[in-house]
Write a structure and sequence with these properties.
Blueprint: H1 2-14, H2 19-30, H3 32-37, H4 48-68, H5 71-77, H6 83-111, H7 115-135, H8 144-175, H9 180-196, H10 198-201, H11 203-209, H12 211-214, H13 218-228, H14 230-238, H15 271-276, H16 282-294, H17 303-310, E1 314-316, E2 319-321, H18 323-334, H19 336-341, H20 345-351, H21 355-376, H22 381-420, H23 425-455, H24 461-464, H25 470-496, H26 502-530
Antiparallel strand pairs: 1-2
Helix pairs in contact: 4-9, 4-13, 4-14, 6-8, 6-23, 7-8, 7-14, 8-23, 9-22, 11-18, 16-23, 16-25, 17-18, 18-22, 20-22, 21-22, 21-25, 22-26
């Protein structure tokens, strides 16, 4: 009877979970130590131990950034720096980014850095970059311009470190396995780590919501919390350096010619050649166009500031709940669907027809949800319930999109290598990073700050017991909900011009595997000939 029951249970789960996954789970229960170490699995498969490294990488990073991401909030609320003054640092940083990011990306592609060099870059930037992130939060009674000078110095230093770290991370992730599907697993486990760390990452919101109870102000919560979790921020970027590199991209490869014969590869590509290869990456080109078109979209800043000032106060279980409490409640409830679906994101993406379709679906979901949030509003409990439902759909689609983006990046890096013989993580990551930093930290912040300055917003209203300007209260919700609608419409249109199916990925990986095997055999043969 017991055997029948187990078979029935396995058949039921088998409808939703791949048979190989169930077999892995059973093996993990029987032999947990061997399973974690990856004994007996395909050599190209990522071991559970390595997946755990990415799990804690994302968890620790989320814990640390839960405090450090409050930087913009702190500058406006605590330091009361005028929004347009903060934009000065953003403009300087944008120019600095535009100059050095592409050059660093091309240089790192040209150098063909091996795993050891990439590990050193990530470990050095983990320590220095994390410390500078905390330095930017320090007050010490500085004036507005002293704060801005510290901000610009840290941003400019972090930009070089962060770009090199991001490129090294992408190259390490690409080298962890020749299979895009296997590399996609680290994104899934990373997202699960993010969900795991949710409570600590949102601790600042909890503490600020109960300031009177704990006797702490905004600055104490953010700065000292960041100092406490600084070791986690450093460890977050050191953990991935311990993964095994199954593909070493530091060797030059031969490029197939029109006559079918391999050409002798150059010793190193020129800097210009490292940029030329990206013309084969249509996904990167589409993303760059969308990034360029949305670069001026206003960044509305930390959600905490929005909820603190525009949300009404509700009575829950006889107690009054303000904006901070409502934000925490929304985050708690709206993340449940994403948490449940997280372990199966890769399988869901494959069922949808591949990562490109999954990203298009994410755009549609966000357009619909943000429009509903704008139309319904937030000024009653049932409207707030609709808002939570829409945020639930958004969170689930964003979580899926993150895995899909990782899959597509790896697949197109492989395609470019197949076409040109060169890896392009450096250039593509650097340029993509340039756009993202310009949107979130620089140009988007400039336009967002210009909007805040237009409304007359100056911050510190809770501490002073005063009310924000009427312009701010009137226009913040439309800006918060409708700007993403336009952005996602642009992203959907750009990605609709890309043609890439799972069959293309399979063909690319097959041809690359054959070429790499032949090149490895040739290297071994030459090494034997050179041996005394």
């Amino acid at each position: 009877m017991g055997g029948i029951s187990i078979d029935w249970f396995n058949k039921l789960l088998g409808r939703f979970i791949p048979a190989q996954t169930l077999a892995n789970v059973r093996e993990g229960i029987k032999h947990p130590v061997h399973w974690v170490r990856g004994e007996g699995i395909d050599p190209d498969h990522i071991t559970p131990w390595e997946l755990l490294l990415y799990f804690f990488h994302r968890a620790f990073s989320s814990m640390f950034s839960g405090f450090t991401d409050k930087q913009d909030f702190l500058y406006k609320e605590r330091f009361r720096i005028p929004p347009n003054s903060i934009s000065v640092a953003g403009v300087v940083s944008s120019v600095w980014d535009a100059v050095n990011d592409p050059i660093l990306g091309g240089w790192m592609d040209r150098k063909r850095l091996g795993p050891q060099a990439l590990r050193k870059i990530m470990r050095a930037s983990a320590i220095t970059g994390s410390i500078l992130t905390v330095v930017k939060l320090f007050d010490g009674g500085m004036s507005t311009w002293q704060h801005l000078a510290v901000l610009m110095f840290c941003n400019m230093t972090q930009d070089i470190l962060g770009t090199m770290n991001g490129i090294a991370d992408q190259k390490m992730r690409s080298g962890i396995s020749p299979s895009s599907q296997q590399r996609g697993r680290i994104n899934v486990w990373g997202n699960m780590g993010y969900q795991f760390s949710w409570a600590i990452a949102n601790l600042p919101t909890v503490l600020m919501g109960f300031r009177e109870v704990f006797g702490l102000d905004d600055y104490q919560i953010i700065f000292f919390g960041a100092c406490i979790f600084l070791p986690f921020g450093i460890a977050a970027w050191i953990l991935p350096t311990f993964v095994r590199q199954r593909v070493d991209y530091s060797y030059p490869v031969a490029v197939p010619q029109a006559d079918g014969e391999d050409a002798e590869p150059p010793e190193k590509p020129t800097l210009a050649q490292t940029f030329q290869v990206v013309k084969h990456n249509r996904y990167f080109i589409a993303n760059s166009i969308a990034n360029f078109l949305t670069v001026f979209s206003p960044d509305m800043g930390d959600e905490l500031m929005i909820y603190r000032y525009i949300m009404p106060k509700y009575r829950v279980f006889g107690r009054e709940m303000g904006g901070e409490g409502l934000l925490l409640l929304k985050q708690m409830l709206s993340g449940n669907l994403s948490t449940v679906l997280q372990p199966f994101q890769r399988q869901i993406i494959n069922r949808l027809g591949g990562p490109l379709r999954a990203q298009q679906l994410k755009c549609v979901v966000n357009i619909f949800s943000k429009l509903m949030m704008y139309l319904v509003g937030y000024k009653s409990p049932w409207r707030f319930g609709v808002l939570i439902l829409m945020e639930t759909l958004i969170n689930a689609s964003v979580s899926m999109d993150q895995v899909a983006e990782g899959l597509l990046n790896y697949e197109w890096y492989d395609y470019v290598e197949l076409k040109t013989g060169q890896r392009s993580e450096g250039v593509t990551t650097a340029v993509d990073s340039l756009f993202k930093k310009s949107i979130t930290n620089n140009i988007g912040q400039v336009t967002g700050n210009a909007f805040l300055d237009w409304t007359g917003f100056r911050g510190g209203y809770t501490e002073d017991g005063t009310r924000p300007p009427e312009k701010y209260l009137k226009f913040m919700w439309p800006m918060y909900t409708l700007i993403p609608v336009l952005d996602h419409a642009i992203w959907f249109t750009a990605r609709s011009f890309v043609r890439w199916k799972p069959q293309d990925r399979e063909q690319t990986e097959l041809l690359l595997a054959e070429r790499r095997a032949a090149e490895q055999a040739l290297r071994e043969e030459l090494a034997e000939d050179d041996a005394p």
